[in-house]
Hints:
Layout: E1 5-11, E2 15-22, E3 25-38, H1 41-44, H2 56-59, E4 64-72, H3 80-93, E5 100-108, H4 110-117, H5 123-132
Amino acid sequence: MVNYILKLEANLKNKMIFAVEYQSKDIALILFEDHHRPGELMWDFHFLYPNYYASETEWYDNRNLISALILSLDREITDQELKDDLVCLADSIIEYKPAVNTKVTFHYDPKVNQYYCERDGHREQFLQYMLSLCENKETINLDEESFNHLTQS
């Protein structure tokens, strides 16, 4: 793995957003979401059916689901080594792995890049759009004082 820098963009109650920097350029965002529910075979891990599990009863995994959505900023990520590095980075952030089930997915959305590039002037719009990508939808109300330090709620 090469040297990446993780930059915390937002730390909310059940969600975290990190920017991934490589060679002085931000290349991706990682959006973590704690779902407070077990992962479901057909909904969260459908790619395991039917090759590894034939039914939900075989699945039987009641660990808490934490998803890591990796959003590339410039274009879709096709380099497998880069994908592997980003999965490793996302996985390394999650603590106490025996109690959680991790779901990592990749996505490219040009709007994410647009909002990320404009985040200094329109921070709330950036955060609202990122939160709209989550399973558990929520909105946040921020004022100018909220951005003086790390964005936390």
